[in-house]
Each structure stands twice: as structure tokens, then as C-alpha cells.
Amino acid sequence: MFLNNIIGLFDKSYSSSGFSHSEAIIKQKKILNELLENSKDTRFGEDHNFRNINNYEDFKSSVPIRDYEGFRGYIEKIKNGEKNVTWIDKPLYLAKTSGTTSGTKFIPITKESLPNHINTAKHLLYDYFKKKKKIKPFLGKVMFLSGTPNLDEENGIKIGRLSGIVNHHKPFFLKNKSLPSSKTNQIDSWEKKIDNIVEETLDQDLRIIGGIPPWIQMYFDVLIEKTGKKISQIFPNLELLCHGGVNFQPYKSNLFNSIGRAIDTLETFPASEGFFAYQDDLYSDDLLLQVNSGIFFEFVELNELKKEKPKRISIEEIKLDTNYAMMITSNAGLWSYDIGDTIKFTNINPLKIKVSGRTKQYISAFGEHVIVDEVEKSLKKTCEKFKDVEIVEYTVGPRIMNQKSKSHHEWFIEFKSPPSRIKDFEIELDLNMKNLNIYYRDLRKDKILSRLKITKAKKKSFINFMKSIGKLGGQNKVPRLSNNVKLIEKVKSLN
After folding, report:
1. Using CA atoms, how far apart are residues 423 and 161, in angstroms rounded to an integer?
2. What does the H/E/C string look like for 145-199?
3. How far apart are CA 182 and CA 178, in angstroms?
4. Helices (H), 270-386
5. What is the DSSP string of 472-484?
6. Do 241 and 263 form a contact (C-beta atoms < 8 A)?
7. Whether the Cβ atoms of residue 340 and residue 358 lie closer than 8 Å to each other
8. How does residue 347 score in pLDDT terms, banded at 50, 70 and 90?
9. Does residue 310 have a cis bond before it (omega within 30 degrees)?
10. Residue 495 contacts by C-beta under 8 Å, 6 or more apart in sequence?
11. Which end of the chain has fewer CB atoms surrounding its CB within 10 Å, N or C?
């Protein structure tokens, strides 16, 4: 009966997003036209002359790229209860999220945009089910480590964390299979919440778990400390880990070591602004872009981003292996909105991507233009050579020359298992950085930068830091890069 429920549900809602490039172009043009037509009488539509937009070129001329700060004025009108501001009527929700540059952000979720969040998650599970041809993972409990589902309300709009909002819209076949309990999910304190989750799940048949890797690891650590057992001994039927928010590779070794064996993993690319892509193939780590889910995508090459009028392209003109900042226009009422993420296309038929970093997370204190993707790849390659090294968390920032040292990049790393010779690890890491970033290589060659230096962080340094800024757990992530060392100094000061 349960199997029939799953198949029936997905057969009704699932439509493949693995379109050919030409099919995807048609889908995207249709979405843009529909969005413009539906919004022509909104305040935003009138401000940007939607009635006279006939094609993408017109759209680019009429609607500039905006980040949250550029959009804030419209969001404030929505928060104040105005209707028809950027989309029809009022949104159902405002997803409250912590921005690194804009403070607290409020992202609209409408009745038209909500299915993107819900159905994309269902499609991920269905693709997994379809390709594995196994019902076993769905016969036990499913847990997503999320923020609180508690919602406030202002002017007829409910406000809360995206993961909490989504908790109110679980597919029916998961409602009786979901962990933790609603009561536990409502606990605001992450540490107390983890303790309660551990107590609730110890005797459960957990088979699927999802969340951001460092917080999954924290949950595993508490379980292991309490029981003295590996996770696979506690949950012998655990088969699938769904993750997103940060690069999985730095955490993979620790997580599998905690579990006691390798299990299936799938990456997701969700945000408050939309669920953009997911890994549809266990054996390929790129992500299927959701081109038929109410979102129109635009892309700007990174070297164009700081220009007054950066060149914008649709999926029609994209190139492989090029770093793009991604913009979205959606049925949530976001228009050419810079989400702050960078991606690379890895495939055209169908369109697949990899998340390469954040537009506002970089180091260029000396003109090196280092991005998150390069740092993560360098560390991964180094750890492959130093196989006994395990890393808990890290961040990187530039040290400018003073009387004590020459200019260099400082890597502040919390090791679970450190290298026996830190200098050898530094040399290899530095070499990998030079191989991945030509600007860094030239600066090292010209001795403007000296070799990178690693500072060992104390145990739980980053947990303590995130706790100190009220961002422990949930959807919160440690920034990988900063163009100064303020973050490193802040973390150090707490230990």
C-alpha cells in the first residue's frame, strides 16, 4: 500500500526537468512571458514598464539586477501589508534569513512559488527511488535537521525560517514518518534541540537524514558520545543522506567515519529564494537545474559583475566551466534578483551545474581573486594526499604584512585529526592553490605573498563562534572566505 502511495503521488506531480537544451530554452521563455503577464499591473510591473516588454532584450533594458538592498524598498511595502507590490496580492509567507551583508532578509513565498520548494524535494526522492529501484529507504523514518517551524504574523503574512515553513507542507506519505516531533522542532536553542532529537531518535528506524553537514555531524557526535556506538549500529538501516548549503567534501570523511560505513548521498541547492537544483544521479555530483519550476534564470560572468552594466545572459548563451553569478526572476515576485551564489555549468543536455561559491565570499586583498571553489578544491586535493587528516571546519582570510610577518593567507582550521607535520601540509596546500589560481601563483612567484599559514583552531571553535552570533544550527553556515581577518580574529577571541 505504501509503495502504491509513493508511486501514485509522484506519477501525478512529477515531470522530468532533465530537458534538452532546446527544450529548456522554450520552457524558460514561456516562464518569463508568464511572469511578466501576471505582474504587469503590480507596482513593480508599472515601475518597470512591463506592458511594453516583448522579449528578453526588452526585459534586460527595463529591469536592472538587484541584490537584497536594491529590493528592500519593495519588501518593506510587502511587510507593511500592501498588495500587488511585486506579485499578485500578498505572499503567503516571508522567509526570514540571515544575510552576510544585509542583516536579516525577508524573502516572499507565494502560493505560486511554494510548489517549487515542495515538489523539487519530492522529485529528488522520486529520482532516487526510480534509479535505485529500492523501496527500503522509504519504509522507515525520515529526518531533516531544520530550523523551528514557529511562525510570526504581520499584516496577514506569516513569517519564519524557510525550513520551518516547509515543515508545514510535508507530503502526506512523510507526515507519520518524520522526525523529530513537532514539539522538539519548536525548540529555539540548537543545543537543547539536538539533545531532544537524540532522545527521540535513539530507538527509531531512521533511514533518510537531511540537513547541513556540520549540524548533521554535531547530531552524530552527541549520539556517539551518549551511546559509545557508531551511527550504523544505532541506525542499521540508514541509507541516504541529503545535504546542501556547503560543500560536502570537507565533511564527508568525518560523517562516514561517524556512521561506520559509506552510504548514499545526494546534494541539493535550496535557498529561501527557491529550490534551484538537485543531484539526480548518485554517480555524478553535478546538479540538475530546475528550468520548469516557476523560475527564470540569468547569469553574469564574474569579471562582468562589478561593471555598471554587466552583460546578462539566459541559458541560451551559457558556456561550460565558466564561473557565473546567478540571478533569478520568479513567481515569488523576485526580479533579476542576485542570489549571491556562483555556479558553473557542467552539462548542456540536460542543464547541470555545480555551485562554485558566493559572490560576496572571496579574497582579493592583493588582486588574487580567490573564490570558494578554489579553496575547497585545494583543500580536498591536499587531504587526498594526507589521508589521515580529518577537518571539522575552517575559514580563510588575508594577513597583510607587518613587522612580524610578510603578507599571506591564513587558514584557520579545526582539525579532528591534524597532519603530523603541519609544514608539509601547508606546502602541499599552497601548491594546489597556485595550480588552481594563476593570480595567486603570480603573487607567490613575485614574492608579494608568502606561503599560506595554517593556524590550528581549538575544539568547537566554530560551534562557539556560531553560537555567539546566534546562528548555531539550522540553515546557518560558516563563511569560507573573508577579504579581511576579522572573522578569524573573532573566532580566536572566543577560545
Report:
1. 43
2. CCCCCCCEEECCEEEECHHHHHHCCCCHHHHCCEECCHHHHCCCCHHHHHHHHHH
3. 9
4. 372-385
5. -STT----SB-SS
6. yes
7. yes
8. very high
9. no
10. 457, 458, 461, 464
11. N
> Of 372, 355, 359, 392, which is closest to residue 213 (Cα–Cα)?
392
Buried b vs exposed e over 427-446: b needs ≥16 C-beta within 10 Å? Answer: ebbbbbbbebbeebbebbee
Distance of CA 19 to CAs 23, 169, 292, 303, Å?
6, 27, 9, 29
Name beta bridge partners: 409.
398
- Indicate the helix (H) or strand (E) that contains 33: helix 21-39
Return the C-alpha torsion angle 197, 202, 204, 209, nearest 10.
50
Q: Is 269 exposed, middle or buried (0-12, 13-18, 19+ CB in 10 A)?
A: buried
Rounded to whole angstroms, the Cα distance separating 202 from 226 reads: 10
| Integer Cα distance of 298 and 291 in angstroms | 11
How far is the CA of 13 from the CAs of 6, 17, 120, in angstroms?
11, 12, 10
Is 216 within 8 Å of 209 (Cβ atoms)? yes
Please give the C-alpha separations between residue 337 and each of 107, 111, 262, 291, 296, in angstroms, as whole numbers. 11, 19, 38, 16, 10
Name residue, grid cell 590550528: 456
* CB count in 10 Å sphere of residue 252: 17
Q: Where are the domains of the chain?
A: 1-358, 362-493
pLDDT of res. 379: 95
Cell of 372: 570558494
**Identity at 439, one-letter amino acid code:** Y
Quote the pLDDT of residue 351: 97
Whether the Cβ atoms of residue 490 and residue 459 lie closer than 8 Å to each other: no
Residues 208-254 have pLDDT tens digits of 999 988 889 989 999 999 999 999 999 999 999 999 887 788 789 88
Classify residue 390 by its DSSP letter.
E
- Does 115 sit behind a cis peptide bond, omega within 30 degrees of 0 on the bond before it? no
Copy the grid coordinates of residue 383.
587531504
Rounded Cα–Cα distance for residues 256 and 254 (Å): 6
Summarize pLDDT for 194-204 with one digit per residue, the tens. Answer: 999 999 999 99
What are the Cα distances from residue 467, in Å, to 57, 161, 281, 471, 491? 46, 17, 35, 6, 11
d(CA 297, CA 338): 10
Q: 266: part of which helix (H) or strand (E)?
A: strand 264-271
Record the cell numbers describing residue 239, joined without a space: 541509507
